[in-house]
Amino acid sequence: SQQGEEDPQALSIQEGENATMNCSYKTSINNLQWYRQNSGRGLVHLILIRSNEREKHSGRLRVTLDTSKKSSSLLITASRAADTASYFCATAGGNTPLVFGKGTRLSVIA
Amino acid sequence: DAGITQSPRHKVTETGTPVTLRCHQTENHRYMYWYRQDPGHGLRLIHYSYGVKDTDKGEVSDGYSVSRSKTEDFLLTLESATSSQTSVYFCAIRLGSDGDYGYTFGSGTRLTVV
Fold first, then answer.
1. DSSP line for chain A
2. How much is the pLDDT for A1?
């Protein structure tokens, strides 16, 4: 069963706007990761945040983690049409395999 | 994706036939994984490997077997394909053995069982 659940399932915004996606999970984790998947392609690793971190930045990406609420958010600032993709959160506990959520489909309209 | 290739990219097979998918890596990573992706389900783990001849089951392992006789190759076999195994299959490698690392995914194999 899925550990992470993304919200919303789908999101449509205009180019230049910010996009926020949320992820909730159920059990304790070592880290939480976000991936992007373009249509017909494999997943690409975007960013990893450890359980003892609260916020992390990478370019236009900002990830937050609240372990007390078992939730994370991914913010993409100044969205571009090229950001159109599905975004997945995945949780890791020790050496156990990543468990993925069902994803958020982001459409950025030019 | 760099360092990991899946073959074939597409396959159509008949119900009841065995099918083997191959994942090949060039970077000597210890951990390798097979996931399937279906609409409404996201990615679900089938099997994974933590070394040569060391494998374990995932969430949806029924009807699948795996083998890893060398570090670079991880094979997924559908012993007798069924229509419910029509899916996109992704192989992944973990970029490190200890600590916090992300995965690199292959481009996927689209399998259709008719």
1. --S-EEE-SEEEEETTS-EEEEEE-SS--SEEEEEEE-TTS-EEEEEEEETT-SEEEETTEEEEEETTTTEEEEEE-S--GGG-EEEEEEEE-TTSPPEE---EEEEEE-
2. 47
Confidence of residue B104 (pLDDT cuts 50, 70, 90): very high
Assign B114 to helix, strand or coil: coil
Mean pLDDT of A7-19: 95
Q: List CB contacts (< 8 A) between A43 and chain B.
A: 43, 90, 92, 103, 105
DSSP, collapsed to helix, strand or coil, labels residue B41 as coil
From B42, B106, B108, residue closest to A101, measured CB to CB: B42
**Which are the contacts of B8, defined by CB distance < 8 A and separation ≥ 6?**
B21, B109
First to last CA, chain A: 36
Average pLDDT over all residues of chain B: 94
* Probe site for chain A from B100, B101, B104, B109 (most A CB atoms < 10 A): B100
| Distance set, CA B66 to CA A100, B89, B112 (Å) | 21, 13, 19
User: Do residue A101 and residue B101 have CB atoms under 8 angstroms apart?
Assistant: no
Write the pLDDT tens digit of every residue in A56-85.
999 999 999 999 999 999 999 999 999 999
